[in-house]
Amino acid sequence: TAVAFNLLALLFLSHLMIPKSRVYTTPYFELSHYNPDTGLYAIGGNDFYFVIFFVVFFTGLRHAAMSFVLCPLARRGGISKKKEVARFSEQAWNIIHYSIFWPLGLYIWYSSPYYLNMTELWSNWPSREISGTMKFYFLTQLAFWLQQMLVVHIEKQRKDYWLTIVHHLVTIGLVAASYSYHFTRVGNLTLIIMDVVDVIFPLAKCAKYLGYRRLCDGLFGGFVVIWLATRHVFFLMVIYSVYCDTRRLVPHACFQGSMANLQGPLPQPRGWSLLEPFYSPQGMICANRSIFIGFFAFLVALQGLMVIWSYAILKVAARVLSGKNAEDIRSDDEDEATELEGKDPAEFESFDYWGRTVYEPKPKAEPKAPLVKKGEVKEGEQVAQADNGGANGWEGLHRHSNAVSSGLYLPGQSEHKELLNRIDAPRRWAD
After folding, report:
1. With helix as H, strand as E and coil as C, how does the chain read?
2. Which of 160, 181, 322, 343 is the most exposed place for a label (fewest CB within 10 A)?
3. How sure is the predictor about 376, in pLDDT bands with cuts at 50, 70 and 90?
4. Residue 114 phi, psi dihedral angles, 5° rounding
5. End-to-end Cα spacing for the chain
6. What does pTM read for this prediction?
7. CA 144, 150, 155 angle in degrees (round to 5)?
8. pLDDT tens for residues 191-211?
9. Lowest-pLDDT range, 31-35, 55-59, 98-102, 279-283?
10. Per-domain boundaries in the chain
11. pLDDT value for 384
12. Where is the composition biased (Basic and acidic residues) (predicted)?
């Protein structure tokens, strides 16, 4: 949080107090490549600075929200374990994010010509200008997923660590490519298909951590239905459209220039021209077989990840139907074997905690203090009393007689005596 705050504060102060720097700092705060004639925005290299700003902003905001709002909220809800508090705050942050950006994406789709019309996803390509809302939506989504790559390496590794890494890389690639190649319509539809379950799933997890078992199971049941419908029905419809509709609706040619002076179709050049859409708003942009094969391969890879996670989710659903708790096999809890790695299993005992096996160290048996008859004093203590004399000797005898008068042994008594002896040691040394 401190690093993010300092970077943003330095940027804001430079922007406000050094007018000459504003030509460099403005792209961090405002959308670039605006066309006043059309009221729309082109795509260009300055978008990179806007993305970097929101990566830092999301990182600082996430940490601040978790530390000062969500973790205290978890403790007020009765969650005491440190790991449970951290997990609750992570899921609550996801609820906040997706509750903002999924409705925003849904609004863009609902107010667009491609609402419930798959063929409109590819019409008027290449439309080199988009609305400010669409541009903000895509750049902040790209920033969010880049920031998620940082989060994966900050948090403790989970069981599906490598699957998560692959998922984030594929998602970042799809968002960046669909934005740069002006396939924002299909990118918007794909994001809202994916994001809807990311609102429900964290709600189920938070209900679980708070101890609301029935609410958790109910939300999880709704999550399973929506997951299967969106990830394996609607998303497959998008993949089918990419495979079939692009062949007949998108011109396989190249174009160059701004929207007001678009030139094409042009022959496809060789070399690095396919990268021009990523940095030049008026550069060469092409649609060919290789481009669509790349998009199709990324989408199929994403569907493959969904199949793996769906298998784990269905296993959890089978547990719920059999009367057990909904346990997240997919990503939340670390592998139980790692908790005992390098340790002697005989020194730990396990018990069930809301459907998970939790390990706690076994209490160690403390040696019982030898019983001393009333009035009997050991030889070593006689010497100590003789050396201390006076009040100190009386205090030592008084402590000893109290310790043995009951004849009972209390767990942790030896540690308590050791602590008192350490505290009293400097005074005895001084005497």
Report:
1. CHHHHHHHHHHHHHHHHCHHHHHHHHHHHCCCCEECCCCEECCCCCHHHHHHHHHHHHHHHHHHHHHHHHHHHHHHCCCCCHHHHHHHHHHHHHHHHHHHHHHHHHHHHHCCCCCCCHHHHHCCCCCCCECHHHHHHHHHHHHHHHHHHHHHHHCCCCCCHHHHHHHHHHHHHHHHHHHHCCCHHHHHHHHHHHHCHHHHHHHHHHHHHHCCHHHHHHHHHHHHHHHHHHHHHHHHHHHHHHHHHHHHHCCCCEEECCCCCCEEEECCCCCCHHHHHHCCCCCCEECCHHHHHHHHHHHHHHHHHHHHHHHHHHHHHHHHHCCCCCCCCCCCCCCHHHHCCCCCHHHEEEEEECCEEEEEECCCCCCCCCCCCCCCCCHHHHHHHHHHCHHHHHHHHHHHHHHHHCCCCCCCHHHHHHHHHHHHHHHHHHC
2. 322
3. low
4. -95, 15
5. 51
6. 0.74
7. 115
8. 999 999 999 999 999 999 999
9. 279-283
10. 31-260+277-321, 381-405+414-430
11. 44
12. 365-381
